[in-house]
Amino acid sequence: MPKSKAPANQTLIEQLKLQVGNISTRIEAQGRNVFGDSNVMSTDEITDFSIEFLELMVTLLDSDDPLDHHRPAFRALQTFFGNISKQILVRGGRMEDFVRYMQFLQRCFIESLGADEQVSPEDMRAILLLLSSVFNELMLAVFQTYLEEKERTIDAQQRELRETSTPITEIWDGVLTLPIIGTLDSSRTLLIMESLLNRISSERAHAVVMDVTGVHTVDSQVSHHMIQMVRAIQLMGATAILTGIRPEIARAMTSLNIDLGNVTTRATLSDGLKEAFRLLGIAVTKA
Predict the structure, then answer these.
(1) C-beta of residue 131 within 8 angstroms of C-beta of residue 106
(2) Is 285 helix (H, G, I), strand (E, B) or coil?
(3) Which CATH class is domain 7-161?
(4) SS3 (DSSP) at 169
(5) Which single residue of 31, 105, 132, 258 could bond 253 by disulfide (Cβ 3.0 to 4.6 Å)?
């Protein structure tokens, strides 16, 4: 069934043409109040935003079906608001301020229509429903952008924390140290293993001292990840030396039947380094 342009669309377009100057002025003034003081958007950017928004809105209203989310006109408006919200987030702006600004944009249209006595109650109801539907979808697009940006930020912070929380240090030619602090999960183990194996290859390391003093709890999963790293080190042709196993950790690993028979263990990191030096034939003496 072909779709025809609704009277509500025509009424909105006519009002926009008649009052575009007034609406644009109000939008710019409110934009400066919301974003100008915080330097989130410059005066020129707010002006450009007002002009482009009104142009996209007219294009949408002039389409056959403004509520069809798959039409280019609707997607263009969604993309426009998504990009603006992303820009505001990057510059440190608050998303709630932008949402309130969008609500103000909607009020501008409604108030401009309310001032026209020729708009019938039936048209007014149709226009209110149309505006409500359009702006609800735009706000959903903005919140989607907000959530995506937050997820990207959290993921980046987690990656950075994982990389910095487990530093791999070359303590001597051919000797690497790997202090492990906190809990080992699958993703962190893979990250550590990838970094560690690359360092073993690039530094041509012969011994890796893994210090687990900072590991407070050990369950079957943590033990499995530790053994995975030890075996990976051995497959690279290096010797794995495990240090810092506290009594409660030793009891937990014993109760879990973890076999460390082929793993060199020492009480402290210092003892582990001495063992690594011994394996390489290095003697460290006082001057």
Answers:
(1) yes
(2) coil
(3) mainly alpha
(4) strand
(5) 258
